[in-house]
């Protein structure tokens, strides 16, 4: 079976993925499918293009599983769970859909690798909010606003540990 495509066309690129999946079961090489890009090069280009351009995350994140108190203007305080943290923000799982640019205040305890515990209070803004069935709630990405140099230092220590 012959199959060819232009790498800049999304429809044919998707068709190639389907073909690669079909042929992976019978272990044929990409040359057997008459493609001008190897499967490895193709997957690399997908991963590269998916991570370039308008990225949500601009810094590395590290898993952080703690309870976080979230305060929104005019609303009762919520206690939610965190997903991860970086020096510039964190992700939380909440029960409500929050609009991007919604300001809030966060309070949580950060346990550093040396065993020291630090109470953190910081203002943040919602960057994005997406429902996750797997996490049973809305995953919100938050950007810290006006974080102190002390907090930035604590977060850097946490990230390195």
3D structure, described in words:
With 161 residues, the protein is α+β, with helices and mostly antiparallel strands. It is 25% helix and 34% strand. The protein is built from 3 helices and 7 strands, in the order ααβββββββα. It is globular. The chain starts with 9 loop residues before the first helix and ends with a helix.
SSE arrangement:
Blueprint: H1 10-24, H2 39-51, E1 62-63, E2 67-71, E3 78-85, E4 89-94, E5 103-111, E6 117-132, E7 137-145, H3 149-160
Antiparallel strand pairs: 1-3, 2-3, 2-5, 3-4, 4-7, 5-6, 6-7
What are the salient characteristics of this protein?
single chain; 161 residues; alpha+beta; six-stranded antiparallel beta barrel
- Main β-sheet description: 6 strands, antiparallel, barrel
Main-sheet strand order equals 2-3-4-7-6-5
Tally the helices: what do you get? 3
Which strand-content bin applies to the residues?
A: 25-35%
Q: Note the overall shape.
A: globular
The total beta strand count reads: 7
Q: Which structural category do the helix and sheet elements fall into? A: alpha+beta
| Mean pLDDT over the residues | 77
Pattern of helices and strands: HHEEEEEEEH
* Unreliable spans: 1-15, 21-54
What is the subunit organization of this protein?
Answer: single chain
Distance between the ends: 52 Å
Radius of gyration: 22 Å
Q: Could you estimate the helical fraction of the residues in percent?
A: 10-25%
